[in-house]
Design brief:
By secondary structure, the chain is α/β, with parallel strands linked by helices. The protein has 2 domains: 180 residues, 3-Layer(aba) Sandwich (Rossmann fold); 128 residues, no CATH class. Helix content is 50%, strand content 11%. It has 14 helices and 7 strands. The chain has a 7-stranded mixed beta sheet with strand order 2-1-3-4-5-6-7, with helices on both faces. Helix 7 links the parallel strand 6 and strand 7. Helix 1 runs parallel beside helix 2 and helix 12 runs antiparallel to helix 13. Pfam families: DUF2520, Rossmann-like.
Length: 318
């Protein structure tokens, strides 16, 4: 059975479920097209999608074959369930704009996929009688074919009113995901946590790979893959107790050597190294991995490492 059609436990197979809702996808990008395909696999009827870019059109043709690409207001008008899969900063204006032109109608369902927003952003639609939901797949989507498979079993951060929670959870389960509840007041913190863990991780990996290339390593991925896999496993299973490396040992000399070398060979990376090493030291102290007399010299070195007169600033000015 193709990955996109695998169902969560306890749900009927797609072939046994009648088409219940006409679905419109606003934003046929990396997330919207995949969710549309999952809803179609669950027996819903995806009737239209909106996407401006050539990449969106290609993705819709691949994942939503036969679904027409229409203007946003036409998509909303045709749908019982509207999926808003647009960038965070675009979402408030889009919802309000549709309300201003009478695009919403009472009895519709609408969910957005933004992790940064909760229900408040859907208030203009709710005032028009729309049932509002926030369903955020806590998964990274790259636009590659494997995105559909990543959705299976993916956790979804769900924010809804108590009376609408069964509807939200059912939709998530139908898409193959696993719902967990996030309170409205916690939505921004929840999203900041995911960005810290996923987006910043990509930056750290790419930064490490660049440094290895500068050091003459031709295939940095071969070196990093086993190391980072083990580090991620340690972090998930053991938290701060999984920390290794010079900070966990209080090796001030090694950290000083790193700062001097980076200032000379890769000065653009010094600020990031200092920030991460400082936070790592603080967490190591708080968790008992370092004692105060071991952590204090590290913090002193790091606080001086990026300030005026530091090696990094001297290199930058030079």
């Amino acid at each position: 059975m193709p990955a996109a059609r695998r169902r969560a436990a306890g749900l009927p197979p797609a072939g046994a479920a009648p088409a219940r809702l006409r679905v419109g996808i606003v934003g046929a990008g990396r997330v919207g097209a995949v969710l549309g395909a999952a809803l179609a696999a669950a027996g819903h009827d995806v009737v239209a999608a909106a996407g401006l870019s050539a990449a969106s059109a290609e993705r819709a043709a691949r994942l939503l074959p036969g679904v027409p690409l229409l203007h946003t207001d036409q998509v909303v008008a045709a749908a019982d369930l509207v999926v808003l899969a647009v960038p965070d900063d675009t979402l408030p204006g889009l919802v309000a704009g549709l309300a201003g032109t009478g695009g919403w109608r009472a009895g519709q369902l609408a969910f957005h996929t933004s992790g940064a927003h909760g229900l408040a952003v859907l208030a203009p639609a709710a005032e028009a009688g729309v049932l509002p939901l926030a369903l955020h797949p806590a998964m990274t989507f790259s636009g590659a074919p494997e995105d559909a498979e990543r959705l299976v079993g993916a956790p979804f951060g769900v924010t809804s009113s108590p009376e609408h929670r069964p509807v939200a959870e059912t939709l998530v389960l139908e898409m193959g995901g696993e719902p967990f509840f996030v309170a409205e007041a916690d939505r921004k913190l929840y999203h900041a946590a995911l960005v810290t863990g996923a987006n910043h991780l990509v930056t750290l990996v790419a930064e490490a790979a660049d440094l290895l290339r500068t050091a003459g390593v031709v295939e940095p991925a071969r070196v990093l893959a086993p190391l980072l896999t083990a580090a991620l496993d340690n972090g998930l299973r053991r938290g701060d107790r999984g920390l290794t490396g010079p900070v966990s040992r209080g090796d001030v000399g090694t950290v000083r050597d790193h700062l001097e070398t980076l200032a000379e060979r890769a000065p653009a990376t010094v600020a990031a190294y200092v920030a991460m090493a400082q936070r790592t030291t603080e967490r190591a102290l708080a968790s008992g991995r370092l004692r105060q007399h071991e952590g204090a010299p590290l913090l002193e070195l790091l606080q001086a490492g990026s300030g005026p007169g530091s090696l990094a600033s001297e290199r930058a000015e030079g």
